[in-house]
Every structure is written in C-alpha cells, then in structure tokens.
Amino acid sequence: MTVEVVTFGCRLNAAESEVIRREAERAGFDDTVVVNTCAVTAEAVRQARQTIRALRRERPQAKIIVTGCAAQTEPDTFATMPETDGVLGNTEKLNAAAWMQARAFGVADAPKALVNDIMAVRETAAHLIEGFAGRARAFVQVQNGCDHRCTFCIIPYGRGNSRSVPMGAVIDDVRRLVGNGYCEIVLTGVDITSYGGDLPGAPKLGALVRQILKHVPELKRLRLSSIDSVEADRALIDAFADDARLMPHLHLSLQAGDDLILKRMKRRHTRSDAIVFCETLRRLRPDIVFGADIIAGFPTETEVMFRNSLGLIDDCGLTHLHVFPFSPRTGTPAARMPQLDRTIVKERARRLRASGALALCRHLDAEIGRDRSVLTETSRQGRTEQFIQVLLTQPGTPGAIVMRRITGHDGKQLLAA
Ligand code: SF4
C-alpha cells in the first residue's frame, strides 16, 4: 500500500499531509501520489503544476490526486489537466468519507473534483496524528481559516473563516505526541492569534499555551508558528517571560514597514506597533529572536515606502526574513491596484534578502562561543531554541536534545562541536 504525499507551502499543510496519507491508505488507495498544494503565490501554483507533469512522466500508472489551497481556490486548473485523476478540496482531503467517494475518480460520469464551499465550514476537528515521518518535531493544528481579508491574500478563499480546535483536544494531541517521544511541539494554523474566538468563553492563544505547559509537564519544547503580533494577548506575551519551555523565537506576519502600505494591505498594525512589540518581548525574554514575512513591491509602493520596510530589519532586530516578491492573486483587491514594474519588484526583493542575510550573519557571529540546546533532527543536523540551523561535527541521535558549544557558522547555519 503506497500513498505518497508531496507537500507545498506552510506547516499546516505539512501537518495535514499526515492525515491525508492515513485517510487515503484507509480508503484503499495504492500506487497513489497526492499533491497537497499552496496558493499563496502564483509561483506556488506554477510549481505544483510543473510537479504534477513531472510525476506523470515518472509514474505513468500511478493515481495522481491534487488537493490543498490551490485545488480549493482554482479546482478547474487541476481538474482540466490530463495528468491528474482527481481533485479534493481542503475539507475533503481530511475526510474519510470523501476519500471513499474519491475511489470513483476515473469512473465514467463520476465527478473529477470534490470541492465544497469552504466558507460554509464552521468546525475544525483535532486529527489525532500519532507522528510525523522522519521528523524530530511534531506539528499540532490548533486553528484553521482566517476572518481577516488582507488585500493581497488568497488564503481565506482556500481555508475559509477562522475556526479553532477545542482546547482539551489540543492538549490530548500534545500529550499523545510527547508520549510518542516528541521533544518539540509546534502549534500551527492559519491565523493562530485568533485562536478561540469561536469557542465557548473565547479563550485566547495565551490561555491555550499556558494550559498546554501546565497539563503536559513532560513537554520539553513548545514552539509557535507564524503570529500576527498585533493580536498577541497579554497572557501569551507574559508566558515568554514565565516559562523557558516556550521557545524564544517568533515568526511575525509583518508584510511591510510603511504605514500607508500597511493600510492599503488592510493590516491591523502600524510600523511602531511592530517595533514596540519586539522591544517588549526582548525586555521580557532577552534571548528571543524574530523572523518576519515581508512583501517586496506591493502596488503603489514608492522607494521611500520600501526603505521603511528595509529599515524594519534593524528597528525590530529581525534575523530570519521570508521575502515575498509581490504576486497579484486573481480575485484579491491588490491584484486590481496599479502594479509596479516586475523588475522593480524583483530588485526590491533582492535588496531585502541581502539585508536579511547580513542581519542573520550578525546574529550568527554573536552565537560563536555560546553553549546552545540543540534539537537533533538528523545525525548531523539540528536546531537551537532560536530555530537556528546547526551542523553537528559530532553525530547526534535524531529526536534528542543536546547541549553543544557553537564553534562557527557559514553565514546560514551554525557549526557546533
Ligand atoms: S491574516 Fe491576512 S495574510 Fe494572514 S491569512 Fe489572513 S488574510 Fe491572509
């Protein structure tokens, strides 16, 4: 029984790929490849189509099923490809009954796409995953969807509105995965700082984090995936000061450093909100590091506005940058705004990446000579609590946490004895 899952995009997709594999196997699929797509950029969709064509050349007999956000937002793009056998929406991909129905893909008159209205989905169940193939850390989904409508973003149309996994189910998930030997758990979702808004009593992410740390004392490391800093509640912020098991690393969905561009993006924070947030956290937890998503070349962005984004690297003290050259997504308001020339977009992305690389280098320089706790991912690779990659000169045991002395770096990762 072989079901392979090719995963694009975010940690939430990675977490869901484990459920997809399990449900497809339970439904009796064999010699099957599921392509779990991402729709964040046009480039991500292009890469998925390219991968599907290559898969068909390599595996002429295999069943190829497409799912994920690109399948949800543009099912026909994949259903009309001769290389594919079927398309499943983002809810259907996690649903046992839908996989049973998908066995009819290819049968005459059977629909080639099972994609329902994602906006009609009201609940998110816990998926009770036992483990993650070949991974030292486990992802636990706590939330799905998003109620915001940032003008550049297609995600709500692929994931629906925000809905949370009940707190008890999340704690059970974490306890089971820790019981299965995982030292690090990553809480994931689409907009995790909106956690709980749809649950009785509207508990916030801070309450969830505190309950996990309280009820799973054997958990060694708890990490958060991307957050919207302006939505971070007080209990969450204080948890960074109170509990060393909460990892000192936050990836922020900042997107830009200019207030007028942030307004045109329909973001909920200002440049100074972002700076104050980082300063506050750094006062409470001096070893914390920040990464951020930043878009280069948003429509109407002038050179001065761009420099405000560039300046955010130093003003927030960012060390890990994910730079996205603006990609107009059909159906979003930003796609209808006056677009910048692509050469300008690419050039600004290059400048952001170059500044980001320098900032990371400065951080890596400062790490040399320190002793750091490293979660070993493979015998030669691991990550510190700050989520910095480490090359281990002495082999380690995958899944184990070890203290190592940092001896150098290669500009991207640390070297440890
Ligand atoms: S908060 Fe904005 S960028 Fe993030 S998923 Fe929601 S709409 Fe997209």
Summary of the model, kept short:
The chain is an alpha/beta fold. It is 35% helix and 21% strand. Iron/sulfur cluster is lined by residues 146, 148-150, 153, 155-156, 190-191, 228, 253.
Structure description:
The structure is a single chain. The chain has helices spanning 11-26, 42-58, 69-73, 75-79, 96-102, 155-159, 167-179, 205-215, 234-242, 259-264, 271-284, 303-316, 342-367, and strands at 3-7, 32-37, 63-68, 86-88, 113-114, 137-141, 143-144, 163-164, 184-188, 221-224, 249-255, 289-296, 318-325, 371-376, 381-384, 389-392, 401-409, 414-416. The longest helix is centred in the last third of the chain and has 26 residues, at 342-367. It is α/β, with parallel strands linked by helices and 417 residues long. The protein has 3 domains: 3-116, Rossmann fold (3-Layer(aba) Sandwich), CATH 3.40.50; 138-363, pyruvate-formate lyase- activating enzyme (Alpha-Beta Horseshoe); 371-416. Helix 2 links the parallel strand 2 and strand 3 (63-68). It starts with a strand and ends with a strand. The chain is built from 13 helices and 18 strands. The strands form 5 sheets. Strands 1-2-3-4-5 form a 5-stranded parallel beta sheet, with helices on both faces. The chain has a 5-stranded mixed barrel with strand order 14-15-16-18-17. The protein binds iron/sulfur cluster. Iron/sulfur cluster binds at residues 146, 148-150, 153, 155-156, 190-191, 228, 253. Residues 146, 148-150, 153, 155-156, 190-191, 228, 253 line the site of iron/sulfur cluster.
